[in-house]
C-alpha cells in the first residue's frame, strides 16, 4: 500500500466529512517580479503560435500529487496535525495562485492581470487508489478551481480529471466569467506514479502510459479551441529516495510509529533490482511524451502541444527542497524553483531545452520582452 493510501485509510476515511477545507478569500493578484510590463497589443494574437503571456486568460492543470502540491509546506508543529495531510494547492509550481508566491500562473498573471483557473489555498488530500479508482466528491471548487490534479493519480486517471475540468469550465462559460474562445494554457504533469508502479503494474509501463496521455490530449483537442497544452517531462523520482536516505533527523517517522514516508511512497524504488528497472524504463516515459507532442506538429492555428523537459538534478537539491512530511514530495522551495525554470523554457525553442538544471535558490525570473512569444516549435 502506498503512503497516500495508507494515510487515507488510517486518518481520513473516519473524519473526511467533518474536516473543513480552507478557502481563500483573496483574489489572486499579480506577483511583483519587478519586470517591465508589456505594452498592450493593438491586435489580438494571430494564432496559438503568436501568444504572449498577456494573451492567456485561462490556465488549468492535470496531474498527480506534485501538481496538487501535497505536503509542500511541510510539518506544522511537533504533534499529529491534520494539516500534514493537506494539498497546498495554492503553491503548486504550475497551477498555484496564492498571492506573493512564485508560480507559473502568478508569473503569467503579472502580465495578464485577469487570469482564471489557478488553485488557491489548501485542503485535505484528494486521492486516487490504483489505476482507475478516484472517489467522487473530493474536489473543492473554490480552492481547486481548474487544478484537476489528484494525489496518487496515474495516467489512467486522466479521464476523471478532464471530466472535472470540462464540467467546471462549462459552469464558468455559462456565467460569463470566461469565454470558450479565450486563450488557454493546459499543463499536464503525470507519470511519477506510473514509473513507481512499473515493476508490478503492466498498465503503468511506458507504452500504455503514452497511449493514456495521447488519449487525454486528443480529448482536449476535440473539446477546446484556442488551447496550448504543455506536457512536462518526468523527473527521476527514484533519485529522491536515494538523496534523502541519509537525512534521518529531517526524515522523521509518523509520530508514535516507525512509518517513514519515503520508505513506502514509490514501491519500485526500494530494491536494487527494481531501481534498475526504473532506471532502464525512465527514458522511455519521456520518449513517450515526446511522441505524443510529435502527433501535433502539423500546423494548427488554434491548438498546439509543447514538451517541457524537467531535467533537474535531484542530487543537487538541499534537503529543505523536499517536504519533511514524507521526504518524497517537493517543498515550497522546489515548487518556486520549478516555476522559474519552466517559465523561462516557455520562451525557448525545443532545441534549447536540453540543459540539466542544478538547484539554484537565486534563480533569476526571466522578464519577457514585447517580441517574445511562447515557443511552439
Automatic annotation (TrEMBL):
Residues 1-18 form the signal peptide. Keywords: Signal. InterPro entries: GDSL, PLB1, SGNH_hydro_sf. The keyword Signal applies. One of its GO terms (biological process) is phospholipid metabolic process. GO terms for molecular function: phospholipase activity. Pfam families: Lipase_GDSL (PF00657). PANTHER family: GH22081P-RELATED (PTHR21325:SF31), PHOSPHOLIPASE B, PLB1 (PTHR21325). This is SGNH hydrolase-type esterase domain-containing protein.
